Amino acid sequence: MSKQNEELKKAGLKATLPRIKIMEVLASTAIQEEAHFSAEDIYKELISNDEDIGLATIYRVLTQFEAAGMVTKHHFENSKAVYEINSDEHHDHMVDVDTGKVMEFHDEELEKLQHEIAKKKGYELVDHSMILHVRKIES
Amino acid sequence: MSKQNEELKKAGLKATLPRIKIMEVLASTAIQEEAHFSAEDIYKELISNDEDIGLATIYRVLTQFEAAGMVTKHHFENSKAVYEINSDEHHDHMVDVDTGKVMEFHDEELEKLQHEIAKKKGYELVDHSMILHVRKIES
DNA sequence: GTCCTTGCAAAGCTTTTGCATCGCT
DNA sequence: AGCGATGCAAAAGCTTTGCAAGGAC
């Protein structure tokens, strides 16, 4: 029984082939810039691997994964939503406006500040999304 | 000749009735929390004011306004995009995950911190988008 | 065997586009 | 008058849903 198998069970989901395959695609790259998949990205990837999985299933499964906290859904500026597998460690994104390169970073002070800002307004911070648009400093 | 009229001309857009009316709706509330309109919000508002303006026109006009830097388009987590009139002053957004209510805030320390984070990586901050997802604290 | 899951197709929603008409300058 | 702007309806995305068949436990 694989690790993914267990993770699915833990989320109350049956370990079906579509779900396992989708999970594999989401986890398939170590390259940060490529770690964001739209439903169709996953669909095409599976088709090209001769896995016969319907697009509707992918949408349903991604929704379940998101509810289970296994993936995060981003909207960015495009029309399509993209999904990213959740790692243990929280991070934010920095995008180079010239090259499109996506970098990740984590700053504890920033996290703390966000909690404080929410608290000051009478709210608790559930989550946040932040993207810094940056440009390389000429040297 | 109204102020809006001039602003439209400056953007290279003819001062037509639909554009003026849409601008008026966007500028119609002093309440920051309610300053986000979807295309349909604007459409309904105009219809209820007996202005006969097509939804397609609203989409076209909003796209033009965005290109001219007069409004900012946000996606938040919903399916609909919302538009906000650009004020001189920068602010970020906080969304109540239970009610969908959007609030605005500005925190100088946060802004400074973002610049520092970018700088530390050898970049200058061009822009940023940040949304805090929050929940009301039970009292 | 039971109940959850899947695939397909159809429907739903938001947004965009083609085209003839209209209106600002 | 000229050319951009509008309205309507149709089309185009992306995503969700109904339903019958299939699969996990």
Describe the structure.
The structure is a homodimer of 139-residue chains. With 139 residues, chain A is an alpha+beta fold. In chain A, 39% of the residues lie in helices and 24% in strands. Chain A contains 5 helices and 6 strands; from the N terminus they run H-H-E-H-H-E-E-E-E-H-E. In chain A, strands 1-3-2 form a 3-stranded antiparallel sheet. Strand 6 of chain A pairs antiparallel with strand 6 of chain B, so a sheet runs across the interface. The first copy, chain A, binds a DNA duplex (25 and 25 nucleotides) through residues 13-19, 38-40, 52-57, 59-61, 63, 79-81.
Number of DSSP-assigned strands of chain A: 6
Backbone shape of chain A: globular
Binned strand content of chain A: 15-25%
Q: What integer value in Å does the Rg of chain A equal? A: 17 Å
From the N-terminal CA to the C-terminal CA of chain A, the straight-line distance is: 53 Å
What is the subunit organization of this protein?
A: homodimer
The secondary-structure element order of chain A is HHEHHEEEEHE
Mean pLDDT of chain A: 89
Tell me the number of helical segments of chain A per DSSP (H or I, 4 or more residues long). 5
**Most extensive contact:** A-B, 34 and 34 residues
Q: Roughly how much helix do the residues of chain A carry, as a percent range?
A: 25-40%
Biggest sheet features of chain A: 3 strands, antiparallel
Identify the strand order in the major beta sheet of chain A: 1-3-2
Structural class assignment of chain A: alpha+beta
**Low-pLDDT regions of chain A:** none
